[in-house]
Write a structure and sequence with these properties.
Layout: E1 2-10, H1 15-26, E2 33-37, E3 41-43, E4 54-63, H2 67-80, E5 95-101, E6 106-108, E7 111-113, H3 122-131, H4 143-148, E8 155-157
Antiparallel strand pairs: 1-4, 1-5, 2-4, 3-4, 3-8, 6-7
The protein binds 7,8-dihydro-7,7-dimethyl-6-hydroxypterin.
């Protein structure tokens, strides 16, 4: 089994409800074990500002899937939970990003791990730090140090 971290984000429809339904579902899928989630956070959109606020969270799970099989599984869930993609960096009903896969560094046309944007995103680092305060990236940087390097956090904990 490998430990994986996955970022959740949604800002269309009822994002909080979408994430809670997803989390319920993930407790019962054979692909993932020991699913644990951070609090949910409300965050202002990064990118185009003319879209609703996001609800973001990070989950940790154990899996026997290989990285690309896990990616397929996550993309399938995005489709199932009604992803609507209008434009790059536009609003979406559910976005699932594989952040970390064990201590692996992977560069594949379909998948880069660690997720390249994660080190600059408060809506990823804050929930990740809540879930795993001692965690570090494969290159040795700690989540705490990355968080200290961010200019400010603009996140409100929902639960
Ligand atoms: N902004 C926030 N706050 N949360 C997200 O999950 C998110 N996802 C995105 C972009 C459009 C970059 N902005 C976001 O894909």
């Amino acid at each position: 089994m490998n430990t994986v971290y996955i970022a959740l984000g949604a800002n269309l429809g009822e994002p909080e409800r979408t994430l809670r339904e997803l989390l319920d579902r993930l407790q019962h899928v054979p692909e993932l074990a020991r699913v644990e989630c951070s609090s949910l956070y409300r965050s202002a959109p990064m990118g185009p500002q003319d879209q609703p606020d996001y609800v973001n969270a990070v989950l940790r799970a154990q899996t026997n899937l290989a990285p690309l099989a896990l990616l397929d599984f996550l993309q399938h869930l995005e489709d199932e939970f009604g992803r609507v993609r209008s434009r790059r960096w536009g609003a979406r009903t559910l976005d699932l990003d594989l952040l970390l896969f064990a201590n692996l560094e992977l560069h594949h046309p379909r998948l880069t791990v660690p997720h390249p944007g994660m080190t600059e995103r408060d809506f990823v680092l804050v929930p990740l730090h809540e879930l795993a305060p001692e965690l570090s990236l494969p290159d040795g940087r700690t989540i705490g140090a990355l968080l200290d390097g961010l200019p400010s956090h603009d996140l409100v904990k929902i639960t």
